[in-house]
Structure formats: C-alpha cells, structure tokens
Design brief:
heterodimer; A: 212 residues; mainly beta; 54% strand; B: 406 residues; alpha+beta; Serine Threonine Protein Phosphatase 5, Tetratricopeptide repeat; Arc Repressor Mutant, subunit A; 3 domains; six-stranded mixed beta sheet; 57% helix; elongated; WD40/YVTN_repeat-like_dom_sf (chain A); Glutamine cyclotransferase (chain A); PQQ_rpt_dom (chain A); WH_DNA-bd_sf (chain B); WH-like_DNA-bd_sf (chain B)
Chain lengths: 212, 406
Amino acid sequence: MKRSAAEIVTEYGPFPGVEAVHGVSYDGTHLWFASGDRLNAVDPANGKIARSLDVAAHAGTAFDGRHLFQIAEDRIQKIDAASGAVIGTIPAPGGGGDSGLAWAEGSLWVGQYRDRRIHQIDPDTGKILRTIESKRFVTGVTWVDGELWHGTWEGEDSDIRRIDPDTGKVLEQLDMPEGTMVSGLESDGGDRLFCGGGASGKVRAVRRPKRR
Amino acid sequence: MESLIIAAARALEAGDPLGALNRVALRNDAPSLALRGIAMAQLGDLAKAKTLLRSAARAFGPREAVARARCVVAEAEIALVSRELNWPPKALAAARTTLASHGDLANAAHAGHIEARRLLLLGRIDEAERTLAEIGAAPLPPASLVVRELVLAGIAIRRLKTQEARAALDRAGKAARQAGIAALVAEVESANLILNTPAARLIARGSEHPLLLGEVERLATSTALVVDTFHHVVRKQGVAISLGTRPVLFALARLLAQAWPADVSREALIAGAFQARHADESHRARLRVEIGRLRTQLEPLAKISATKQGFELAPRKTNDVLVLARPVEEKHAAVLAILADGEPWSSSALALALQMSARSVQRALDELARSNKVQSFGHGRARRWMTPPVPGFPTGLLLPTPLLKA
C-alpha cells in the first residue's frame, strides 16, 4: 500500500448561506455540491455558485451524463439536471445510513458510513448488486480510470483511499491534513479529486497521484 | 456523514424535534441515539433523554472523542435543567477542553455557558462572570448567543443593574428571533417579566407600594435610611449595618422604621419582635436590653428615643426612612424566591443554593406543600419541587445543533 499526504491543489468556498458540504459531483463543466436543502453548481474557474436547485440534499451526489442523483434522508432522488425536477426515487441501500454516491458503468455506488461498506446498486430499482467492505467509515465514493476511490472520516481524521473493488484491500492512501474532513468525493476525470469539506463549507481539489 | 442523520440534525437545528425523531426513532447507532436524546430533551422527557445520551456516549467509538464530548455536554445541560447542581463539573470541564482542542468552538462555548448558568444558580456570581469571560467573543450561532445574554442578564439582575440586564435581554431577544426558535423567544420573554414584575415593596410613612427592579436599584443612591429586609441590613448610602445574625434587633429596627415618624408602643414591639402575645414584666425588661443593643448598633445612622408609650426612630441627616420588603412576605420566602424560576428543583440543589441544611429545606418544602404553595413530583432522589402552576418543563435545552455535524 502506498501512503502519502494529500496534496490540496485548490480550495473553493466557503459559500454564502452554506453551512456544510455533504455530497460533491462534477458534470464536466460545473462542480455540484449538496448543502442540505439545495444542490449548488460551482464554476471551478472562479469558485462562484453559478446555479442552485431547491432539492433535499443530505449526502452523496452523482451525475450520469444527464441526470443528477442525490441522497436525501433514506432515498436516492433522480434529478433532471436541466430543470431541477425530481423525476424518480429509489430507496437508498443503507436506509438512511448512506453517505457517498457515484455513477459508473451503468451502476450507482453508495457508501454506507458507519457500516464501512460500499454497495453497487441498480439505478432503476435500488437493488443491491454487490457489496465491498472497507476498513473505515465511508464517506464519498468515486470511480476514475477503473480505480475505485473513497473518502473516510472516522473520529477527527479523514483520508482518501483507493481500494481493490474485488477484495476491499487498500491500495493507496492519501492522508488529509489534521482537522480537514472529507464528506464527499468526485473525480474530474483527470488528475484532480474534489473533496467535500463537511462543516467547513469548502470543497477542495486534491491531486490524484499518477499510476506508474 | 449519513444522510438521515444530517436530515434529523437539520430538523433539530430548526427547532423541530418531532421531525428529527421521525427520522431516527427506530435507529440505534450512536449518532441516532444522540439525536434522539436531544430531541427527547427538547420535548421535555429529560429522564429518557439522559439515558439515550449516555448510551450514545458509550456507542461512539474510541476515535470519536468529540462526538462523545458533545454527549457529555448535552447530559450536563439536562442535569442543569433538572437542577441536579451536583452533577460532576469536572466531566463538563473535560468535555469542554476536548471540544476546544478539536476546534469545535461553538460547542465548547456552550459547555462554558452551562457552567456559568450552574454557578449563577448557586449564587456564585463572580465565578459565573469569570467563566463567561473565558469564552470570549468567539463568533457564536444565534441560539448560543441567547444563552450567553441570558446569563449576562441573570448576573446583572442579581447585582441590581437593571439597565445592563435590559440591554442583555434585548440582545437575547434579537438573537432568539434570528435563531427562529419559538421556545427561545418565549424564554427571553419570561426573563423580561422579571424586570416588569414588582420585585419588592416599599413601606414609608405607614403606606406601601410595589417597586420594580429598576426602582429598587435607584433606591441604592437615595439619601434615605433604608431598612432592607432582603439583606437584613440598615443602610444609608455607603454605610450599611448588617443585622443578619441578630433577627430580634432587625425586627425591632423594622417595626420602628415602618412606623416612622410615629413611635411604636412597647406592646407592639414586644408582640412583633418576640412573638409574645401578652407582654409581662420580663418582656419589658428584655425589650429595654434589646433596644439598648440596637441603639449601639444603629449609632452611626440613627438615634432611638424613648417616648411616653414606647420608642421612636430618629434618623441622622436625613428626612426619610424606608423599609424595603419582599413583594409577598412568606415564612419561607427564600425557598419560594428560588422556585420562582419555574424550574424543577431537588431539595438538595435548593439546600446548595440557599446554603441551608437539607433538613431545614425539607421542612420548609413540606410546610409550603401543605399550603399548596409548592408541588413535587417523582420519588426518592428523583423528587423535584416547583411552584404551581407547573409551567411544564423548560424549553431551555439549547444544544447548538450540529451536535453531530462536525
């Protein structure tokens, strides 16, 4: 396992009227984050909120190319990114103990915080297809280049780790600076990982190490 | 963190404990237990709240020191509201340190506020003030500001500084409306009542009228000779003669002051000060002795002269004699005064606050209960006393939310 300190490239926020950042996602242009009763789109170039959708948004956020998915209470809402309308709902696998959310390869991936697990579920029905065990409380989840990354937050420590999707074994770990929490995780498809900063109200971009 | 926990915490923060309970009622993980505990406390079931918070503290893992400390603070607040004033202050101090060292300044401040409220209830006003000063001016969420200002108002009221008290209560009201929590607004309003309800009675030249706290305060600068039944002193401006340990002398001084400028007959003095129905020769002899003692005591402020039928008071360098008395005179006025805060008190907490023996407090409470002036509920050590009508449990449980948000 490779272990190193996380390199924070950029910090966005805190944003006016935002108490905490729960989930984060990226649609190729905007960085989306969940702040309780809103989903906010941030322009990564200037760090300003470009647009907000009024939807319940208590945990993870994901984007499938057309729709946003957002965990609220014990369900996952499917939201039309253009209009902001909730067009469908499926039960969340953790029954409300859910944290992070990611979209990859036709499935949704859901972190179940205190149960230290990640579920792969059917985005239409919510059926659990498989479950990966982690060693730490799971917050955000994301896939990039066939790598499964997830954020952890246990007690007062957070890190970002790449795990083997089959065994759950930790392959790589980036330790966040003390007091810096990871409440959500998303890749920009390149070498940046966006991390929700919990009650700090910030979103941070962390460099994803290059694969040798 | 977890979706439903965040939803429940947000509901709690918005003053909607039922909404919070709806979300976590059936869950038994540590954060749910803590949220349920706080919701139950806000709904008034303090016993249940305490149990839930204790289980929550146990259920949090060893790495979750902050979450655990928050549970301890919440439990301390419940103890305060239940008037369990001997709840271990060390545990609260330790939790406060943990929170501060992990950067949770809002909750650390809340822990400090609880400590200050406890000291205020115990009458340790200087210590309460010091504790508040330690918290400093860290930016606090509105709900926390309300508590801070309420404590400041409480300190000012006990020091008879009405303007300061009013200013603090105004700030508290503003913060309460900003927090948008109806229970807090109501609490500030009931604190305001203290300033607008007669705090004392003024007896002068045979007539009497009620006084507001502000008027009592102004009295302190008057040039009159004041017989103060709150503190058992006779004072004029800066000079105060304490008769706290001489109840008979104080009773005589008061009788003379109430009648002033008229004199008081020996019979009336004997009946009033010695509780004797018929004055006989031994009473008259005793009266002479006690008047002699009082004369010596009051020497700097007043003379006492004999008249044909009794005695009269002659204040020096002033033309005014006032008696400051409680609005309603009760045998157990001190106990009632404390219970007037509307909170449930244990007899041991009353004893602690009044610096009386537990036995005396118990006797007073039993007597007051027989005349329906106080009510109790619970049994054994859990027994609590309140003044009727029972105003329900306080709504003052002010856990600054994001108990779990971090």
